[in-house]
């Protein structure tokens, strides 16, 4: 990578304190763009690029079917990078200023019906022992707290206060929030801790969730376990940890929870991000209306 790229990554890591997954994404984006510039224009660094070059790179990815959200993220990475260069006097203008974000269509969150979620947490479904207690706790944590996968992976034992039935979570941008815990989850947590110690002995890693070999959980492992268990209760194509987060928010809203409270629990920076869940509620109301009204 070019020297300016390394300086930028150090800046957003040490000064701006960007989340680890954002750092990895931005590093990947900038590396890909540098490779593109070298292969298509013979340039050796991102700082030499012009607006048409950036636009050509983004357009090519769109033509190849890359998702709009991913393309917008790559644009944001470049925008932040060139903003850093302008601020430090390395370039005179930000070439991304006139490059607009790709418009995204409205996608409703995918969620699982409450009755099926009850089936998911049948006591006999997960079995006993370390593996079963871990998977049960993991899915309970996603569904009853609404936390993100990255947040769950970083949870440490001292973040959970079973006596107070609450949990401290570090979210995007380093923002911390306190989430209440259900008695059922606390019971599952204590059972899991016992099984974890039996399997790996005392003094195991500080992270709450570990793999079958006792190592820190990683995104792919968490995704596969959630997909496996969701596959037994739903035929929906998407079966990710985020589906459980969406189910948490949707079920809370359907049962009358205040939208601002859901926003705080989810760790959203603004209410606009939470309002997407109202669409699911509206669609449910429309369905009931069509079924019940004599003129519908």
Please give a quick description of this structure.
The protein is mainly alpha-helical and 296 residues long. The chain has helices at 3-14, 20-41, 51-63, 68-87, 114-120, 123-126, 129-145, 149-153, 183-200, 219-230, 241-254, 259-266, 271-274, 276-292; strands at residues 160-161, 166-170, 176-180. The radius of gyration is 23 Å and the shape is globular.
Descriptive overview:
The protein is mainly α. It folds into two domains: 3-87, Orthogonal Bundle (DNA polymerase, domain 1); 114-291, hpI Integrase, Chain A (Orthogonal Bundle), CATH 1.10.443. It is 58% helix and 4% strand. It is built from 14 helices and three strands. It has helices at residues 3-14, 20-41, 51-63, 68-87, 114-120, 123-126, 129-145, 149-153, 183-200, 219-230, 241-254, 259-266, 271-274, 276-292; strands at 160-161, 166-170, 176-180. It has a three-stranded antiparallel beta sheet with strand order 1-2-3, with no helix packed on it. A hairpin with a 5-residue loop joins strand 2 and strand 3. Helix 7 (129-145) packs antiparallel against helix 9 (183-200). The radius of gyration is 23 Å and the shape is globular. The N and C termini lie far apart (62 Å). The model has no long low-confidence stretch (mean pLDDT 89).
């Amino acid at each position: 990578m070019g020297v300016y790229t390394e300086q930028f990554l150090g800046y957003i890591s040490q000064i701006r304190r960007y989340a680890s997954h954002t750092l990895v994404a931005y590093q990947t984006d900038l590396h890909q763009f540098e490779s593109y510039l070298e292969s298509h224009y013979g340039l050796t660094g991102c700082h030499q690029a012009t607006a048409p070059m950036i636009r050509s790179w983004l357009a090519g990815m769109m033509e190849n079917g890359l998702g709009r959200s991913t393309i917008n993220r790559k644009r944001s990475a470049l925008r932040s990078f060139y903003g850093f260069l302008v601020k430090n006097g390395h370039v005179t203008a930000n070439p991304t200023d006139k490059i607009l974000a790709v418009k995204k269509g409205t996608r409703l969150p995918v969620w699982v019906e409450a009755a099926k979620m009850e089936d998911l947490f049948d006591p006999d479904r997960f079995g006993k022992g370390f593996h079963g207690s871990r998977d049960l706790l993991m899915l309970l944590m996603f569904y009853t707290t609404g936390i993100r996968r990255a947040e769950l992976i970083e949870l440490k034992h001292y973040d959970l206060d079973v006596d107070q039935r609450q949990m401290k979570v570090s979210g995007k941008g380093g923002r911390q929030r306190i989430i209440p815990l259900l008695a059922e989850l606390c019971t599952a947590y204590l059972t899991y801790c016992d099984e974890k110690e039996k399997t790996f002995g005392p003094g195991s890693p500080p992270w709450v969730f570990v793999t079958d070999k006792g190592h820190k959980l990683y995104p792919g492992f968490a995704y596969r376990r959630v997909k496996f268990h969701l596959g037994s209760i739903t035929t929906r194509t998407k079966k990710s940890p985020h589906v459980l987060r969406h189910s948490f928010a949707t079920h809370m809203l359907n049962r009358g929870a205040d939208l601002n409270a859901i926003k705080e629990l989810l760790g959203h920076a603004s209410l606009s991000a939470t309002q997407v869940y109202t669409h699911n509620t509206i669609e449910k109301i429309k369905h009931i209306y069509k079924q019940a009204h004599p003129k519908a």
